[in-house]
Amino acid sequence: MSNSIPSSVSYEPTGQRLPVKTGPLLELENLSTHYVSSGGTRVVRAVDQVSLRINAGETLGIVGESGSGKSTLALTILRVLPPAARIVEGRMLFDGEDLVQKSDAEMRHIRGKRIAMILQDPMASLNPLFTIGDQVAEPIRVHEGAGRATAWQRARDLLKSVRIPSPETRVTQYPHEMSGGMRQRIVGAIGISCEPRLLIADEPTTSLDLTIQAQYLNLLRAHGLALIFITHNLGIVAKMCDQLAVMYAGRVVESGPVSRIFNAPVHPYTEALLNSIPRMGDSAQRLTAIEGQPPDLAALPRGCAFAPRCDRVFDRCRVEAPPEFAPAGRRTARCWLAAADSTPSDMLVQSGTA
Amino acid sequence: MAIQTEIIGLPPRSRSRLAALRFGDFPLIPVLILGCIALVAIFANLLAPHNPEIGSLAARFKPPFWQTGGSTKYLLGTDQLGRDVLSRLIFGARVSMIVGFTAVIFAGVIGTTLGIISGYLGGWVDQVIMRLTDSWLALPGLTFAIFLAAIVGPSMWNIVIILAVTYWTRYARVIRGEVLSLKEREFVRLAIVAGCSKWTIMQRHILPNVINSAIVLGTLMLGVVIITEATLSFLGIGVPPPQAAWGLMLSDGKQSLMVGRWWLSVLPGCCIMLMVLSANILGDWLRVKLDPQLRQL
Amino acid sequence: MAVLEASGLTKHFHAKRGILGGERGVVRAVDGISFSIEPGHTLGVVGESGCGKTTTAKLVLGLEDPTAGTIRFEGRDLQGLDTAGRRHYRKSVQAVFQDPYASLNPRMRVDAIIAEPLVTNEPLSAAEARSRVLQLLDLVGLPSRAADLFPHEFSGGQRQRIAIARALALSPKLIVLDEPVSALDVSIRAQILNLLRDLQAELGLSYLFIAHDLAAVAHMSHMIVVMYLGKIVESGEARTLARTPKHPYTEALFSAALPSHPDERREEIILSGEVPSPLNPPLGCRFHPRCPHAMARCADEEPMLQDVEGRLVACHLYDAAEHRALIRIAAGVSQVS
Fold this sequence. Notes:
Chain A is α/β, with parallel strands linked by helices. Chain A has helices spanning 70-77, 104-110, 122-125, 132-144, 148-161, 167-170, 180-192, 210-222, 234-240, 258-263, 268-276, 315-319; strands at 26-36, 43-54, 59-63, 85-94, 97-98, 115-118, 198-202, 226-231, 243-248, 251-257, 332-333.
């Protein structure tokens, strides 16, 4: 319960990048989360051997469709999984500390303070019975032990930094009195209130209008913290992210710098996804559709999970699931097509290629 | 006229709706109990060892066979008119089952229909039906039933009608609530767009989707209805003697309780309790199973 | 002749506030809009929440009656139609909605769902209905065994196909598509959009396509109308509108659209403020409080839709007089008022 908290902190985004510490901010190594049914009969491999890295100040986009495991991954990082889910293997190194090994009490100190998360539906994220001020001030009071007055002052500053007009009146209002765009910004304000190093945003703009979405994305970007953006929308990734990881059936099938993947995707799923989006200004051209349906996670096919829908499938794909290959730089691709010109990443030294 | 689109494969498992109920936590015992009672009611003629309505005065107040003075001829003893308690319990099951189920079904039909009409049509129809429901609900159920019974006179079918008329309001309110939210669902809008009349929509789209709630409510109401019937019989305005009904047996037996002839009240009381408890547990289970399924679908 | 023509279409809702309905207000959901849809063409409607596009869809479908204005279907005014005419309209205009999970009655089998419009409107034998259902399933790319299954056995994309099959049952002329792919996975969207285009080419259907994904609307539509707070602010040919928007709102909207490539740089026009409530639209031009180019005139006078190089724009920037003045300034001639 420190009393050296300044009563007014400027949250204005400075655009400055935080000093880069050595080593990545968050590193996931071979992380797997499985849902086990009550009888132990059905195992759903929601997250399967995921390895990712994000450095301080970077924005990582995780793209996937329903059933890809991206939301489960977010819950895993914060260790807020439902009772049926279990982390079965892997490590999550945050600033060098393994989050998988931490106790509940230790995780409580990390959540909200060092890693924060914002969710898709702002109305569901806000408690309708408490004022905006109460809700924005809550993490500050919990994590930093600030008194009510101090915390409320900081709440007002936070609302100003997310461009909510007349924050002095807004702090005493209730969520239902705000519009959708404002609610989402308030949720964002709650997320950054304790100045976390990492913010995980799970589809935060799906319910927003386009022009409001634009405002909001700019706001998030300007704050300079590391951001994991979970979305199904490649457009958001193109606009916001430095790094990209594409997930399919619980695995990361491709990852690397955004422009390089957009220019030259390695995995057929990534390529098909990129080709299936309608492009503005592209006339009369047929969209490339991906055949088939997303897979049933409880009954994955032998071999590569994408094989039934892949247009470049060959025999080996159906029999053996490909490991993660590291073609070059910070890129990885989980596909036999990448085998030719690279060595499997588990044979490479992990740290180093940045 | 095939178009160049990819033929989509369907999911390999097609589960039947019944299987979706997931019989893992099935309330086996309550269902068995209700099943037994139903069977007993159906085969009462074959199962009852004696005539339930005529007794021999020579064999009055015989205790159950395991007590001194009892005999295996009258397994559970006899009552004040020498009638075999077991036979009366068996035939009483018939009364309880018939009255219970038919009253619940009648109430359900009235209440669900009014609930659907009120919820879907809205406007003044809704207002009228809801005010009717409100005022009906304001009447204390049991008192109202007693009042009606006093007017029309006791008989089993009168009781069924009285119970149906007393309890329909529960259905109407619940079903109307469901219909209000169902009305906004897109498949109802599409039915309007397809040109279906209001009555077709209520029948084809609204009714099948509220049946689940009606069934759940029915099983929960079963207990209430049976208790009410028993109470009416207890008060002497239910099923008329000499017909065997559990409530009536309770009433007749209450004086004898003081002199130690416990079997005349306790046994019918146990039967009532078993039936109502089983119905309630089944209803609770159904509510959990059927309602979330409805939301999911 | 246009399949559908709306002129001055208006829909106002009464909003009651307070327990006893004290303070009344009028929600001007749609306020005097006019558009037309040609046979075999798609009219795209874009706009954000509160712009009135959903209400427009409901008006076209006959789910709501207009407060003012007319809708002409194949030249005939809807208001003046008799029962037979109204029935013909119902059969010719169908819909596909956003949520594939709520669009199908969970208690009906697929063949009953698809055949419902048919059996409601035409005397068909069971065998005839069945064969039409199988034909429609083939048209949308589903196997015939789908007919005997229930909706919950299908995925979102497949359910939307069933919804499309149903919409086609009566061989309509116009289908209202209200966000038909927004609730679907990205990889499935392309399948459904392709299907819709193929059906349009094959059957000569017209679509009223409402979506918030601007690229999808631009891809699918021949003409686009942009709505804001119940009014049309711009309308014109789809691809040129998307490439060179004229109205400031359209500009902002399309600049906010997400890029399809990280190197795609778009001039970002960030609008200030929120969309005002349709209960109290601003006076004059409804967009003027947020418009980066607002002039004094905009607060007083509502701009009318006028033809600017083949596009209809409702903006004072394009008024003839203003236009001439701007040209003069651009040409370096001093202003003499």
